[in-house]
Amino acid sequence: MNFKELDAYLLSKKGATFDYPFDKTVRVYRIAEKMFALTADEKPLSINLKCDPVYAIELRSLYESVKGGYHMNKKHWNTVTLGGDADDALLKELIDHSYELIYNKLTKKQKELLR
User: Which one, of 108, 102, 91, 107, lies nearest residue 14 by Cα?
Assistant: First the structure.
């Protein structure tokens, strides 16, 4: 998966938006102002994703390309380097997981606005 494909998949999520709060290269993806992913169009391409803490540890033990979140709370965030042993199917699954974790914490009103 390249940056363009990754970006398209992230933005296909209901209510997903992006901005550049840190600098002109790090793109942050949000739903209802809450971050669920961040990446930059750089080599090697990597993405930070929110993750259940127990699942995060499991993923790190199974995949060399999954590490504790770079510049993030390593208990709740993973950094996945694309092109490694985590294939596109797993990457999409992890993006979906991150999105769902954030979506499930939204208020009823925020969820209604996304519909």
Answer: 102
Q: Which phi and psi angles does 91 have, rounded to 5°?
A: -60, -45
* 68: phi then psi, degrees, rounded to nearest 5: -60, 145
Q: pLDDT, tens digit, for every residue of 92-101?
A: 999 999 999 9
Using left for φ > 0, alpha for ψ between -120 and 50, and beta otherwise, residue 15 falls in left
Interatomic CA distance for residues 20 and 28, integer angstroms? 6
Query: Residue 11, by phi and psi: left (phi above 0), alpha (psi -120 to 50) or beta?
Result: alpha
Q: Is 94 exposed, middle or buried (0-12, 13-18, 19+ CB in 10 A)?
A: buried
Report the predicted TM-score, pTM, of the whole model to 2 decimal places. 0.94
Which of 25, 21, 28, 40 has its CA nearest to residue 82? 40
Neighbour-count burial of 112, counting CB atoms closer than 10 A to its CB (0-12 exposed, 13-18 middle, 19+ buried)? exposed
